[in-house]
Amino acid sequence: MAEVARMPELEQALTEVAAEMAERTDRGDVATYIPQLGKVDPKKFGIAAVTNDGRVLTAGDADEPFSIQSISKVFTLTLALGNVGDALWQRVGREPSGNPFNSIVQLEHENGIPRNPFINAGAIVISDILLAGHQPREAIGEILRFIQFLADDETIVIDREVAASERATGFRNLALANYMKSFGNLNHPPDLALGVYFHHCAIAMSCRQLALAGRFLANGGKNPATGHSVVSAERARRIGAMMLTCGHYDGSGDFAFRVGIPGKSGVGGGILAIVPGVASLAVWSPGLNANGNSRLGSIALERLAKMMNWSVFAP
Ligand code: DON
Fold first, then answer.
1. Contacts 24+ apart (CB under 8 A), 170-175
2. Which atom of ligand 1 is nearest to 69's Cα?
3. Which residues contact 223 (CB under 8 A, 6 or more apart)?
4. pLDDT digits (tens, 9 = 90+) for 11-63
5. What is the C-alpha to C-alpha distance for residues 73 and 100, in angstroms, rounded to an integer?
6. Ligand 1 centre from 149 Cα, in Å?
7. How many whole angstroms from 55 Cα to the centroid of ligand 1?
8. pTM of the prediction?
9. What is the rounded distance in angstroms from the CA atom of residue 141 to the CA atom of residue 145?
10. Which of 49, 142, 150, 190 would you label with 276, given CA atoms 20 to 30 Å apart?
11. What is the pLDDT of residue 101?
12. Cβ neighbours of 214 (radius 10 Å)
């Protein structure tokens, strides 16, 4: 796994995967429950790989920004762990939920403690943690600047129309936040935690920017371009473990089985995936499967991992 990616082979694999995906008609369904996301062209497909030795390879619509949605939860988890350390795990679990991303059912049995930081309830608690000592706009700014710093790209922005569309239709998230507040697992008014949550979900990035932002996770917590440490090697491994076990909601087991590397999806159709020791990958195809994960994005990663012999389980 620690072997450096062979470049000509990777470049060709990306091109082949993008060509195959462009031809396919079984693209899944674009999310419409956030009306602004329903306007995206389902024919889009982009893929990017950033290797630990500094190469950036792309194919398809890899420079077109899309709504990263729940992929942002990887970055908010990283920031919150930096702020409060392992105390975070007293308020959020680390088990796969086996339920849809927006499910409320486990919260009652589990006293308002969400199963993991990637389901909506868990990410709302993480937003609440990031609010400590801040106004919502400061917490949102901190998240955005962190992602800009990771990608080394200050042009990354929040799509305000998507954020407004989420707020206007986010009744389920409102229920989750109020319910957790009733158990004492939110320190701030639900509305404020949700303001942070809706805005970080509405960050827009291209595959290239996303793969760049994820590279510290493929390189033991260090940005391979600068050598600067973002998180400890242990923390990078643990974030990867959360992605592998919980990154695709009730489709996490299937993704681990088919693709074999950690990944985090978003309902905008993006997936950030990590090949530890080798590369950070981002893929985007807006049509979703039944679990709300990118249909062609996960198939593309499955193909690519097979072609490159990438798996965290490979000898
Ligand atoms: O809470 C929501 O509905 C969205 N802002 C994020 C959900 C999401 O991306 C789930 N991922 N597949």
1. 170/194, 170/198, 172/102, 172/104, 172/120, 173/102, 173/120, 173/124, 173/197, 173/198, 175/104
2. 9
3. 150, 215, 216, 230
4. 999 999 999 999 999 999 999 999 999 999 999 999 999 999 999 999 999 99
5. 16
6. 23
7. 30
8. 0.97
9. 6
10. 142
11. 87
12. 28
Catalytic residue among 30, 181, 197, 222: 197
Is 165 in the active site?
A: no
The rounded Cα 129 to chain-centroid distance in angstroms is 18
For ligand 1, whether the C-beta of 103 sits within 6 Å is no
Strand bridging mode 66-67 / 203-205: antiparallel
Distance CA 133, CA 260 (A): 39
| 4 residue type, one letter | V
Average pLDDT for 218-241:
98
Average per-residue pLDDT for the chain: 96
Read off the pLDDT of residues 81-109 as tens digits, 9 standing for 90 and up. 999 999 999 999 999 999 888 899 999 99
Q: Which among 62, 53, 88 is positioned nearest to 73, based on CA atoms?
A: 88
Would you state the structure tokens that stand for residue 110, as one six-digit string? 């589990």
Q: Which residues pair with 204 in a beta bridge?
A: 67, 157
181 noted as active-site residue: no
What is the percent of the chain with per-residue pLDDT over 90, rounded to a whole number?
94
| Residue pair 208/226 in contact by the 8 Å Cβ criterion | no
